[in-house]
Amino acid sequence: MRDDNPYRLSRSVEPVHYDLFLHIDPDQEVFSGYETIAVRVNEATALIELNAVDITVSLARVNGESASVTVDPAHEIVQIQRTAPLTAGTDAEIYLEFSARLRSDLSGLYSSVYNDEQGVSRKMATTQFESTGARQAFPCFDEPDMKATFAVTLETPAALEAISNYPEVASQPSDNSDFVTHQYETTMIMSTYLLAFIVGDLRATTPVIANGIPVRVIHTPGKEALTSYALRVAQHAIAYFEDWFQIPYPAPKLDLLAIPDFAFGAMENLGAVTFRETALLVDETRAGQMELERICDVVCHEIAHMWFGDLVTMKWWNGIWLNEAFATFMETGASDAFNPEWHKWESFGIARLGALNVDGLPSTRPIEFPVIAPSDAENMFDLLTYEKGCSVIKMMEQYLGEETFKAGVRSYLNSHLHGNAETEDLWSALEEASDQPVTEMMNTWILQGGHPLVTVDALPNGVRLSQVPFRFLSDESDPVGEIGSSWLIPVVSRELNGVEGRVLLGQQDQVLTADSEPIIVNAGGIGVYRTRYSQQVLPKISERFSELAMLERFNLIADTWALVLADQVSLADAVELFNHCATETDPNVLQVVSSSLGLLQRIASPEEQALVVKLTTNIFNPLISALGMEPTPSDTPRTKVARSVAFTALGTIADDPDVREQALQWFREEMSGVGGPSGDLANAVLATVAKHGDDSEFAFMLDRYRNPVDPLDERRHLLALADFRQPSLINRLLPMILSSIRSQDGAFVLNRIIANEAVGEIGLDFAFSHFDELLARLPANNYDLAFGSLPTLISPSSYQRSSQVFSFFESHKLPAGERLLAQTLERYRVNLRFRDRYAGRLSSILS
Questions:
Q1: Is residue 152, in this structure, part of any structural domain at all?
Q2: DSSP letter, residue 386
Q3: Does 305 appear as a known binding residue?
Q4: Does 1 score more than 50 pLDDT?
Q5: Contact 751, 820 (CB under 8 A)
Q6: Phi, psi of 560, rounded to the nearest 5 degrees
Q7: Quick one: which H or E segment has residue 176?
Q8: How far apart are the C-alpha atoms of 218 and 161, rounded to whole Å?
């Protein structure tokens, strides 16, 4: 009945249709409702199980007869007991009346608080149901394969707008004074987690039509001017996905809603997608290139879910990874098509690297793993699901070929329209389309954690390839944890004369022959593995560094640095590669170098700091000299980002006096209200000013945070406050995390303070002394983020706190995100070992 899982509902009764009525007033703590659920009786039973959390059910009837109600809070189940069993093979109706409180934890049906244009505090009610939040708003069969149709009616204050998944078909004054009843068109069959209700003082743009679908951006008053970009992206995305999937958009409308308080980036509710304001609303004239790309990515990601997730849904939460990974894959392709100059698959290398940096730790996990309790599902929303999952899908597409891959995905979707599927169903469809061993190959990537290290050894007329698991903590005494042991690796190789080779590398070594040297392994850079070239091969590749493709250069730098951290190659090898980047113009390669230099700066003694500064200057100053600090009309998207990366490195690592002075000049212009930095340099300028700023700069940024021009402006200035180095200023900021800073942003601020080398220990002390208050204040999915910068505590003073850090978290457990915290602590061990090896020795390497 429950597959031996006490959190699963009985399948004796399954839903067909919900008639749901909710009375919601955002200014009142309590909401109420009633519902009639049409169900199909599969087995004779007098006991009906639904999910409910923190909901009071005041009345229950089944087929018009009263029924008793009991609650199993541990398993989030409410039981409806009849005196006589229902007959198998029949239909029945469940009627329930219930009430609950609007939540404050950004989950379920919750309250979002914001200041209107006049500075007056206002409230809206909104939803976040994925994974299992619907049961916090109304009793329901809250499992993804228990799909049904929904007819929603909302009773709300007449002065407010009310939005749900499907278009409103009728509204009329309610029997309650000053309230209106909104009735919405019945939805297609879908899972409970995709339902949405939003009630507040909202404004909607005039609909734009995308392949016959009306699209709107809905926002709080005064933000109309920030909506045009998202509308253009949404129009593009619908057309792109309809063509790619060869299936029409599945709902009659698409509303994109900007929510002031939102725990995630966005949520793919069918026809009513909710977003953080910073992921949707933007002034294109003020935004930076990366900010525009992020909004495009998020909008495309959520619209991709309308097909992959909403139309065809995973059977159970172990399939979240495929839902999110595939949407990330489609998002990247759609954004790349929106503006090919962005080269999105190349810039995705940075995101993939973040996942691999986690995946080399003992507490990594398989991409897909068993989900038992609802809290287990929450652990899937991480880099391994989104970025590693997307990476292995992209690698498979490259292996099978784009058209073959499309054919398999289309077959999969058409076979499961309006239904549910398992991961294996997609592999089967791709196998049928390609006649390749997709299941065997993908199981080695999906069902075990970690990723391989492919070693390339020289042979007289080629190279030998072999694989071992990559491990950052690679001592014999270190735990292996969830890191696997053998993969089927689709290796693409390339000679620099253009000759390409392909081989499927398993446990047995493979030999690649070549007419010319060197041989580039992971040609094109799509493979989800690290590469280690032997000392006979690496110098030959380094000499031809500029001839490598962008992702090949990126991987060479990133893989070598990872091997340095794993104590498998010397720091000198990495520094030699860094020196080849003095003529580099790609922002992704430069970002990897910059982050590596930032780590060197943290372990450097005062005497060694000058050498890190010199290396940083040698690498990044030529680019700034060539591009100039001021934006130009000829800038490409990548030029804009490259300038920002170089400006940041020179301003924060190298303390370059010219960059510092330019940052201060732009900041003074911003303070005066005339001029200021471009959107691409805004974050770099604020970080540079904050590093050297005092009370007056802090006061301006604080005021700008409280009175922003737009949501991105608010976030920029908030995070920059954490970059000030005076303890007195940071001690003013830290208490705000527990009060005036939005709960959705608090973890980001604390994370950045701890990462601030000058005041990180102050942030650490605050986190330890206010641990319980932080857990009560922050959204559960942000707990791990609050402590995510602990690995940066490796400076000559802060590394001495490491034993206290490990001891604290042995006795203080997180109620959510425990695995992610374990990964953070393991990354800390990696960085501490790096410090032990190289602190005090940098002079001999960098001189």
A1: yes
A2: I
A3: yes
A4: no
A5: no
A6: -65, -40
A7: none
A8: 10
Distance CA 353, CA 394 (A): 14
- Which structure tokens are listed for 599? 């780590």
Residues 494 and 387 placed together within one structural domain of the fold = no
3-state secondary structure 126-147: EEECCCCCHHHCCCECCCCCCC
* pLDDT interval class at 3 (50, 70, 90): low
Per-residue model confidence as pLDDT tens digits over 514-535? 888 899 999 999 999 999 999 9
Q: What is the pLDDT of residue 2?
A: 56
* Three-state secondary structure call for residue 208: strand
Domain stop point among 147, 171, 201: 201
Q: Are 574 and 560 in contact (CB under 8 A)?
A: yes
Catalytic residues: 302
What are 297-347's pLDDT values in tens digits? 999 999 999 999 999 999 999 999 999 999 999 999 999 999 999 999 999
| Phi, psi angle pair for 367, to nearest 5° | -60, -45
Are residues 54 and 193 both part of a single domain? Answer: yes
Domain count of the fold of the chain: 4
Residue 211 burial (CB count, 10 A): 13
Stated length of the chain: 847
* Measured distance CA(524)–CA(823) in Å, rounded: 29
Q: What CA dihedral angle connects 222, 287, 778 and 119, to 10 degrees?
A: -30
In a domain, 788, yes or no: yes
Give the range of the structural domain holding residue 461, as residue numbers without chain letter: 451-568
Does residue 726 contact residue 760 with C-beta atoms inside 8 Å? no
Q: Where are the alpha helices (DSSP H) in 281-343?
A: 289-305, 320-338
Query: pLDDT tens digit string along 615-626?
Result: 999 999 999 999
Q: What are all long-range contacts of 570-578, with beta carbons under 8 Å and residues at least 24 apart?
A: 571/837, 571/838, 571/845, 572/845, 573/538, 575/615, 575/845, 575/846, 576/542, 577/542, 577/545, 578/615, 578/619
What single DSSP character describes residue 512?
E
Q: Residue 573: which of 550, 621, 541, 610 has the closest Cα? A: 541
Final residue of a domain: which of 450, 485, 518? 450
CB within 8 Å of 468: residues ≥ 6 apart: 452, 453, 455
pTM exceeds 0.85: yes
**pLDDT mean across residues, the chain:** 96
CATH number where 44 lies: 2.60.40.1730
Res 378: pLDDT? 84
- Check the annotation: does 242 bind a ligand: no
- Helical (H) or strand (E) element with 646: helix 637-648
- DSSP class of residue 270 equals T
Q: Is residue 281 part of a domain?
A: no
Q: In this predicted model, what pLDDT tens digit does every residue of 268-305 receive, in sequence order? A: 999 999 999 999 999 999 999 999 999 999 999 999 99
Tell me whether residue 301 is annotated as binding: yes
